[in-house]
Amino acid sequence: MSSLSGVRPTKGFLIEMKRRISFIERGCEFLKLKRDQLAKELSASIDVLRGRRGTLEDQLRRIYDLIVSAYLSLGPAEVGSQASSIRKEFAIDVLPVSVMGVLYPRIRVQSKPRVEGRLDIVLSGAAELASGIMEELIQIAEFEARVERIADELGKTNRKVNALENIVIPGYKQTMKFIEDKLDEESLEELVRIKLIGGALARRRE
Amino acid sequence: MSPGLAYVVIRCHAMRAELIDPEAMRSLAESRDMEEFLGLLSQTRYQEIIEEAGDGASAVALERVFHQKLVERLDRVIRVAPTGMAEFLRVYYYMRLEVQNLKRILRGKSSEAPIERIKRHLIPVSPYLSVDFDDLVGAETMADSVNLLGKTVYAPIKKGLALCEKYDALWPIEAWLNQIYIESVQESLSKISSEDRVMVRQIVEVETDVENLLSAINWRRMARKQPSLPPLESIFPLTYGTSLRTIKELIEGRDPGDVVRGLGAPYAEILEPIIDDDVALVRTNLHKHIYEAAREGRARDDFGFPCVMSYLVSCDIERGDLVSIAWGKEHELESKRILKYTVLPDYAA
Lengths: 206, 349
What we know:
The complex is a heterodimer of chains A (206) and B (349).
Chain A: H1 11-74, H2 76-83, E1 91-99, E2 102-111, H3 121-205
Antiparallel strand pairs in A: 1-2
Helix pairs in contact in A: 1-2, 1-3
Chain B: H1 5-16, H2 22-29, H3 34-41, H4 47-53, H5 59-80, H6 83-110, H7 115-120, H8 133-138, H9 142-148, H10 160-167, H11 171-188, H12 194-225, H13 232-235, H14 244-251, H15 256-262, H16 267-270, H17 279-300, H18 305-330, H19 335-340
């Protein structure tokens, strides 16, 4: 029993082990709660993501079609020139947000480009649609980052719970059993020794 | 001194053989990829300049090549055209290209784009009535560029600057540039005979009206976000076959499909794709209309101005088609999609 080689079979050590195992079991319960909460968050986020992504992909396809027809109709130089007439750029701010210890980015739109009155009709349709879905696109990106990080954290938490439930806690229980057995054995030896000594002393008195 | 009308007509007849015919244009549009497109193109009169552009030519580089070829063809015709005709053609073509360049420069200046980027978008043509393009591009601000044009025919665009600032948009200056161009073309029409004027008017007026209607649809979208519209006369200074009332109806919310159906020929046909929300196809239809008008003119008189005009219209249409095909091939688009927005392949037998 190599894992038990460093174990001191004393009552004090047994009490210390009992204190530790109750702490570990409580931690494991917390981890299980965290795991369940993360799994719930993950499945809700995936549902939202699936629905939104489909709509967004349709809109992106429409924008792509409009841009292609603008290029075919106006030529790359004219499209480039019109696109460069847009003054303000799309500016975003990325802030870290924590949910159950999982950090994910929250994106805030600082400024949006103004496309009105600057583009030809062929391009303005695409630009307006693109400008309209940009915030949605950012939200999806935020959701994707969130899902990715929650899934990662969920995997880690699951591994921790499994390790505690299947390796650490049984190991501690085994050690405790070993110490208890050892202590029982010692107390039995002590009892036998006392009985023998008591018998020897009684014989000497006779 | 010009060698006379007969010479320029014969020259145009001869140079017509250099143009890419509709069948060849269809083959170019249906080529597998950019490599095959360039291979086919090198069998045409574009061989030399394609070689200059190099093997890995991009659609942007090719667009410059196609513009260069157009300008070279315009030069060859205008150099030998009789004085009056040459004057008209210079205004009609050179001024149009110049106006396009001025719009591109002012757009770049308004957004404070880098000088190199603005220059990259310019059509390779020398200034006609404007000052040097490099000076305009190098000016500090858009207002400085506009001021540099103060002693040219484009001086009135200065009046549009205040509106540009008020609406934070470029349309006032672009509307002025369009107006100056169309008025100059109308003025230069006096240099050609009255019969020839009919064909040109047909082209210019329909082009102006269609652009007005497209612009009205654009305004309709903008009106949703910007309730106080400027006076319609400032946005649409010139109208011909369509009235300001029609434009107003379009902006103020009448269904574009209803308006288009109510328009007479040729507008209803040209603008039909608006019903399916394919605005880009309207321009293709407009180019087809111009090509048809030039062809009809030539059918009426193949030994006068219509023959010259038809040749130059064909050169311009060829340039537009090649630009679309080159871009489509570079982006691996389906041939069907490219063919939808090109003109000449439709006339292939």
